[in-house]
Amino acid sequence: MEFDLDDEQRSLRDEARRFLVREAGVAYARSMMEDDRGFTDDAWRAMAGLGWTALPFAEEHGGLGQGYVALAILLAEMGRVVLPGPFFSTVVLAGTAIAEAGSETQRKELLPAISEGELLASLVAPLTEDRVGVETRGDRLHGEATFVADGHVADRVVVATRGPDGVGLYVTRGRDGVEATPISSMDQTRKVADLRFDGAPAERLGDGGWPDVQRVLDRASVGLAAEMLGGAERVLELSVDYAKQREQFGRPIGSFQAVKHRAADMLLDVESLRSAVYYAAWAVERDHPDASLAASMAKAYASDAYRRVAASGIQIHGGIGFTWEADLHLYFKRAKASEVAFGDATFHRERMAGILRERYAAAAT
Questions:
Q1: Domains of the chain: which residue ranges?
Q2: DSSP label of 66
């Protein structure tokens, strides 16, 4: 499938890139690594003021109705600057869960607040149904969750839980009964926390079960793959620029065949990932029958490709690439952390195989 951006989408990309480089570039990410919250109110309000927090949601729910392709474009630009902060957890994770699984009343209550940037939220959802570890007892949540993105700042948490009637999505009514413990991770630009639910009041989102959780996970996988695309794209640019400037034996290292071949492989990974990401974004936006398959394909390829590109970028830069002064190590750490988030390449390849087996078995009957 050939995919190209239209004028409106290119405008979104270009405006987002200009703003992020000017107001929330890599220097901002570095400054937030030691910050407890991991973002500033000024930066968050500025992004909300640009309409980014409202971008994918329906207009009747306070959003801009631009859909998932537009969101993928924006996330790619955020990946280019390893953007810290709660955008991914609030908009891509919790916001998507509410939009996909919530009742009309819940959408009208919660999504406008997210769209205005007034409500921070996050998501707890395991990759498979058998790993659901939080329980519902009446309208209370009990259990623990680890490595929850921005769990320490979330006003509400959407949680996949197990109850008497099976698995469902619940949203906490606030912070009561939710104990958050910030923890360290490889990627210091992305804050995570362990959460403990001790009778936290919550309400069920709609009346769906595991299929709703899986739809949210599909969209989370595509969103993360889009962010990884942006990061890989930026690593390639940084590496090519460095290879043109760094001289060895009286000539730029980019003139050496080994460096050329490595850069060519990086370009192939980036462009192939671009196609996979935008097809998956198109598929989930339209609820295409191949949406789950495309989501797993994009995340599987992103997990491998971003890691390879980031590692090759380190190799082209040599020893300086992993020093604190160089930005490249931030991308490498983001690549490694994102590689396993929402399932690594092996998980998603096995899932694709399962989807295809079921499809072919159904066709044969």
A1: 7-115, 121-208, 211-364
A2: -
| pLDDT for the residue 3 | 67
Of the CA atoms within 13 Å of residue 211, those in its CB half-sphere come to 4
Q: What is each CA distance from 259 to 216, 311, 313, 358, in whole angstroms?
A: 40, 13, 10, 44
Cβ contact 200:179 at 8 Å: no
Q: Enumerate residue ranges in the chain where pLDDT < 50.
A: none
Give the CA-trace dihedral at 32, 35, 39, 41, to 10 degrees: -130
Q: 195: which residues sit within 8 A by CB, 6+ positions away?
A: 124, 144, 145, 146, 148, 151, 157, 178, 179, 180, 181
**Is-contact 252 246, C-beta < 8 A?**
yes
Strands 178-183 and 166-172: unpaired
Q: How far apart are CA 58 and CA 111, in angstroms?
A: 9
Which residue's entry shows tokens 């959408």?
107
The CATH class of 211-364 is mainly alpha
What whole-number distance in Å separates Cα of residue 359 and Cα of residue 364? 9
Q: Which CATH number fits domain 121-208: 2.40.110.10, 2.60.40.10, 3.30.565.10, 2.120.10.30?
A: 2.40.110.10
pTM (two decimals) = 0.96
Give the integer Cα–Cα distance in Å for 141 and 124. Answer: 12
CATH of the domain spanning 7-115: 1.10.540.10
Instruction: Give the type of residue at 228.
Output: M
